[in-house]
Amino acid sequence: MISFNGASFAYDDNIVLNAINFDIEEGAYLSIVGENGSGKSTLIKGLLGLQKPIKGKITISETVKIDDIGYMPQTNAVQKDFPASVYEVVLSGRLNKLGIRPFYSKKDKENALSNMEFLNILDIKNSCFRELSGGQQQRALLARALCAAHKLLVLDEPSSGLDPLACDNLYQALKDINLKQKIAIIMVSHDINRAVESADYILHLQNKQLFFGRTADYLKSDIGKFFTIRGNR
Amino acid sequence: MIELLSEMFSYTFLVRAVIVGFLVSICASLLGVSLVLKRYSMIGDGLSHVGFGSLAIASALNLAPLAVSIPVVVGAAFILLRISENSKIKGDASIALMSTSAMAIGVLVISMTSGLTMDVCNYMFGSILAMSESDVYLSVVLSIIVLILFIVFYNKIFAVTFDENFSRATGVQAGVYNMLIALLTAVTIVLGMRMMGALLISSLIIFPSLTSMRLCKTFKSVIICSSFVSVICFFIGIIISYLYAAPTGATIVGVNIIVFCAFSIAATIKRRRILPQRRIL
Fold first, then answer.
1. Residues of chain B that touch chain A, judged by Cβ-Cβ distance less than 8 Å
2. A160 and chain B: CB distance < 8 Å anywhere?
3. Is B86 exposed, middle or buried (0-12, 13-18, 19+ CB in 10 A)?
């Protein structure tokens, strides 16, 4: 579904990612791991077309259109004091279905509500986004991403700042999305143990590709052993 | 009260001022919500200074002021957006750079031609006498267009304001909507500048949205509340300025300050009331 062929990325001539090669099929669950500054977020930006590779190329199969992709970015500063209800935020995920229509249809609203039900946030529908807990905010943003996603969901460190329980709930929700709705997931995570538990594939980055393959193979590899054991400690 | 209003509206220039002011207040308050949330509040201020420069040049060359200023300010809005997105001069610095340059050019042009006349003073501090009949028609048409465009693109403006990266990633042309917001802002500022003055027009953009954000919790309610706040402040301001012969722009800003303080106090009281209950729970 998606393949990277020798894609490299740079900011102002500093190469942050060199020669990335991998491809994944539809419905896969890929976790991208690596330390801070290893180029994980850059890879996501490249995948979404927000950052152009300086060489190599990224191909997305023709069956996946840009409006089949849902994205859950890290929360930004603007959202911390943004007056918006949870419903308004989730519904805005349907924006790419609007085209030239100015207003949301009944179908858009039903879809938003059903995604909120799926993630258990229907009861806080009218609450103000900025007054929610971190876990609830992440759920609202995930519901928004689901409104946009049909085939692929891209997440950038969704569990950062969550307590362990909220984190478990989030990973469970992602697993459900992947299995029940057959949506492929590509997720950046620095929680390597949880990533290994749930993903089918692991991509380990350190400004270059240290490992790409099935999770089971990753756990057997030297680098996988080294990082998962260190993470456990 | 009714006597006062009928007396006021017997003056044609006041009727004109009220019509244009009413429409501009609504436009400014709607766009203001998005600008404040996007951290673009200073764009309004920067553009009004550019507007001052272009009005000065227009009056020096004896050209129609609005017809010259609108394209110039729209152009400046595009450049400001481009600069703040792409270059290494960050948004606020580039705005300061542009607004002071435009102001300086305006002052130079004025001093070389007419000198500091009443006209120039009006551009800076505003005057309700400044509106000619053709200005009124143009202002009404343009502000209705701004309102319609805002309503049509409401959902898109919300999404782009809340999270630009998400919108871009899911295939929405965020850049186009940023441009639209800048364009509408530019038009609104030029229209309101004659009455409010170049130095005060950006308050129409910033105050109502900040005021309503004290109390409102959803984007839609903030939008609706700020347009009401804006219009009410405008009317109270213009009545006071008529009664006491006070400068219109400054009076309207004064009313806005009072309402902002009232909303802030109300928000604090509301929070105090909720907090003890939470503690019991």
1. 37-39, 151-156, 158-159, 161-163, 165-172, 213, 216-222
2. no
3. exposed
Of B37, B158, B213, which is closest to A92 when you measure between CB atoms?
Answer: B158
Based on its alpha-carbon atoms, the radius of gyration of chain B, rounded to whole angstroms, reads 20
Flag whether A45 is in a domain. yes
Position A127 in a domain: yes
Closest-CA residue of chain B to A102: B152
User: Coil, strand, or helix at residue A188?
Assistant: strand
Contacts of A69 (CB under 8 A, 6+ apart): A48, A148, A149, A151, A152, A153, A154, B169, B170, B171
Question: Is position A195 within any domain?
Answer: no
Domain interval for residue A133:
2-188
Provide the number of structural domains found in chain A: 1
pLDDT 10s digits, A75-106: 777 787 889 999 999 999 998 888 788 899 99
ipTM comes to: 0.84
Q: What is the CATH number of the domain that holds A69?
A: 3.40.50.300
- The predicted-structure confidence for B227-247, as pLDDT tens digits, reads as follows 999 999 999 999 999 899 888
Condensed to tens digits (0 to 9), the pLDDT of residues B203-227 reads 999 999 999 999 999 999 999 999 9
Contact between B268 and B250 under an 8 Å Cβ cutoff? The reply is no
Give me the pLDDT at residue B223, please. 95
**For the domain that residue B8 is a member of, what is the CATH number?**
1.10.3470.10
Task: Kindly give the interhelix angle for B12-37 and B174-196, rounded to the nearest 10 degrees.
Answer: 140
Tell me the pLDDT tens digit for each residue of A124-133.
999 999 888 8
The count of domains in chain B is 1
Low-confidence ranges of chain A (pLDDT < 70): 229-233
Question: What are the C-alpha distances in Å from A165 to residues A162, A168, B94, B171, B181?
Answer: 8, 5, 45, 33, 41
∠B268-A141-B173 over CA atoms, to 5°? 105
Contact A143, A116 (CB under 8 A): yes
* Residue-level pLDDT at B93: 79
The residue segments making up the domain with residue B98 are 2-280
